[in-house]
Amino acid sequence: MPYYVYMILCEDNSLYTGYTKNVDSRMTLHVRGNAARYTKMHKPKRIVYVEEFASRAEAMKREKSIKKLSHKRKLKLVKTQNKQRRTRHH
Fold this sequence. Notes:
This protein has a single domain, classed as GIY-YIG endonuclease. Helices cover about 50% and strands about 25% of the residues. It has 4 helices and 3 strands, in the order ββααβαα. Strand 1 and strand 2 form a beta hairpin.
């Protein structure tokens, strides 16, 4: 079963990064305020980035590396992924 690293855009324009087996159910927990202290204080708006990994270890490693990035670099990552998605659909 794959693991996912995801980023959530919060209402204050901050980004939360996490990993999970199920992005949709994890987002539901974030919205309810039951997933992370950060998203309890910074209300989540939407998922803006998702990456898939074969193992939990890989996902955790990637999550850690993303968390070390500046806000600007995280936004660039989001923008790059969204651009790739648009390109693939056209």
